Amino acid sequence: MTGPARAIVADDHELFRRGVIAALASADDIVVEAECATGRDAVRLARQHLPDLVLVDLGLPDRDGLDVISDIHAECPFSRIVVLTVNEDERALFRALEAGASAYILKGVAADELLRAIRGVIAGESYVSPKLAAHLLQVMRSPARGPLSELSERERDVLAGLAAGETNREIAVRLHLSEKTVKYYVTNVLIKLQVRNRVEAALIADRARRDP
Fold first, then answer.
1. 202 versus 117: which is more confidently predicted?
2. How far apart are the C-alpha atoms of 16 and 95, rounded to whole Å?
3. Is the Cβ–Cβ distance between 27 and 115 less than 8 Å?
4. Last residue of a domain, which of 117, 138, 159?
5. Which of 9, 110, 134, 202 could form a disulfide linkage to 163, CB 3.0–4.6 angstroms apart?
6. Which distant-in-sequence residues (6+ apart) come within 8 Å of 108 by Cβ?
7. 119 shares a domain with 63
8. Is the same domain home to 101 and 162?
């Protein structure tokens, strides 16, 4: 990347938004090009500026933050999305990552840690706030209870598609479902298997197939 990373900040709490912008302004490698307080404007500004980064709150007043992330990821695939939220729920974390977020940061993070996380995202890394990451690691290290046992029959069908490398559209055609429904099942599979992405889910499916 040549020049500073270009960012958009979307948060309806003006005081917090100003604080984030001030933190970013203290860095010479990041420049904030636009700010907004709604999901509608976040998508519009992302489409207009095609920024390197979009910092977005999950609790926007007009639209579900997960839908905003999904729309930005679909329309601006080269923009890296950073979630800033008070939501510590693991389901929200997994759904945000599945929707296209590269980082999930809890509000209250220190400015230097925020900048460190964002620079990692710019470099192509992912980031999850340590408090959530430590808990997820503990869950993943807990004794196995047969990770596929909690999946419904339909979720197993979707997982089989992930293991075969099928896209959501291909899975939808095979199972005679809509892509939106398949996306819902994929999210459930990731949550139930406690994995971060489709690749990890496919690895679990392959391991179960080889070692039933």
1. 117
2. 24
3. yes
4. 138
5. 202
6. 86
7. yes
8. no
The number of distinct structural domains making up the chain is 2
What's the pTM? Answer: 0.67
| Contacts with 16 (C-beta within 8 Å, 6 or more apart), sequence order | 84, 107
What is the CATH number for 21? Answer: 3.40.50.2300
Containing structural domain, residue 97: 5-138
Residue 116: φ, ψ to 5°:
-65, -45
pLDDT over 90 at 30, yes or no: yes
User: Both 154 and 108 in a single domain?
Assistant: no
